[in-house]
Design a protein that fits this description.
2 strands, 2 domains, mainly alpha, two-stranded antiparallel sheet
């Protein structure tokens, strides 16, 4: 079961005092109660009730706060990674390297263009687990595909993408040398 932020459910701060939690709970309980014809929402009501029962009990709240703090760290890390421009640049660079590997492998032997997961990890000196996102993305874009033999190989769309990237690199190189 995934972590549920009870403070967010009750729309209160983790520093909210018991009176505030009680007051907000009553307001939300009335709003989402199944007997309220205008705004009834049984699932939301049950979640609000669950949050209230946890946060009103001192012992449960202390235990919950430990989990909340750990999960808040995960959310903060996710947010920090989302704005890390260098990480995005590294991802694009890794995808370009992968596409280049597939391109060269196909160009060298069009009859056996496939590369296995272990070989990819070895060629890039990178665990396959770190490549999974990029391989998924490239498959979804139809730049690569898994062949009948289980190996991954570049597609026509992938070759066109690699050629377009090559033209962009060449143009950038010319501009920086001329500039």
């Amino acid at each position: 079961m995934s972590f549920v932020d009870y403070y967010a459910v009750l729309e209160v701060s983790p520093h909210a005092n018991p009176d505030t939690i009680e007051r907000v709970f009553r307001h939300l309980a009335r709003r989402y109660h199944p007997d309220n014809p205008a705004t009834a929402d049984r699932d939301r009501f049950e979640l609000v009730l669950e949050a209230y029962q946890t946060l009103r009990d001192t012992t449960k709240r202390v235990e919950y706060d430990v989990d909340h703090k750990q999960n808040a760290g995960s959310r903060t890390q996710l947010a920090e990674e989302a704005v890390d421009v260098d990480a995005l640049d590294r991802d694009v660079e890794l995808q370009t390297k992968l596409l280049s590997l597939f391109y060269v492998k196909c160009r060298k032997n069009v009859r056996e263009p496939g590369i296995g997961d272990a070989e990819l990890g070895s060629l890039l000196d990178c665990p396959i687990e770190l490549l999974e996102f990029h391989l998924w993305y490239m498959k979804e874009k139809r730049w690569i595909a898994r062949r009948d033999d289980g190996l991954l190989a570049i597609t026509i769309d992938g070759i066109e993408r690699a050629n377009a990237e090559d033209h962009l690199r060449a143009a950038r190189k010319m501009l920086t040398h001329e500039g």
